[in-house]
Amino acid sequence: MNKIGFNLLAWSASVEEDVFPIVDRLKEIGYDGVEFFYGSDDPELYKKFGQHCQSTEMKITAVLGLGPETNAISSDPTVRQAALDQMKWAIDVASDMGCELIAGPFHSAFATFQNKAPEDIDYLRSAEILRQAGEYADGAGVLLTPEAINRFECYLVNTMDQMKKLLDLVDHPNVQAHYDTHHANIEEKNIPEAIRKIAPQLGHVHISENDRGTPGEGHIPFEETFETLAEVGYDGWLTIEAFTRNDIGFANSINVWREYSPPWEVAEKGYKLIKRLTEQYNTQ
């Protein structure tokens, strides 16, 4: 059975105590868990956050991003090692706090481009680091799900074709695919075929509208998305990711310059959408 989650980035990139009441209200709405962003290097903050989530019986997933200094496809082996070290640190934090999954575009550095198309060596370098991270995560009981994101934020993995190419090279069961409806809307020519292609390796799904606002109020084809997810037997997380300018620093870092939808509207309407569509298609 699918679990329904909500990414806290709609409010904050932090896991400090001011987000605890948000976790509580999401629990009341019906969510099974919350997703946080690795926005701090203080392990104690994550432990306290994890303890609060456990006290409210809310499960946890996470999002990790890498920068140029921790780029897994760098030609510099010291930078690639830094990427692996960052992944291992995130895995340790996740294990300590009871977080079961780390998602995000950590196959390479966010918004870091080269003046060429990605080459086989780039995929091989990323796969080598991800395989080692997968082995480490396996021992910690944490699943890694690198994410395909759009061409304006990443150039290594934009589509499920590219994701499959990378994961086939990684060849580790603890490294699976992260599919995001927002990015797929930009990059995929055929949504059902993209999901079918990656289905055997699909480990995480973000439910996100085309404008990053309330799911169901834009033009993402959620009906065929949920129908295909049910068809392929996907039973993992369905986690809403929406963005606002509540956390100014984070919003500026990802080019969010306007408000899309109030976060509690996203949470309440988005939950109803997911419940309706999962019940509709999983019972057919």
From TrEMBL:
SUPFAM superfamilies: Xylose isomerase-like (SSF51658)
Pfam families for this protein: AP_endonuc_2 (PF01261)
Protein origin, superkingdom: Bacteria
Keyword presence, Hydrolase: no
InterPro entries in the cross-refs: Sugar_Epim/Isomerase (IPR050417), Xyl_isomerase-like_sf (IPR036237), Xyl_isomerase-like_TIM-brl (IPR013022)
Xylose isomerase-like TIM barrel domain boundaries: 23-252
UniProt keywords, alphabetically: Isomerase
Keyword Membrane listed: no
Stated name of the protein: Sugar phosphate isomerase/epimerase
The species this protein was found in: Membranihabitans marinus
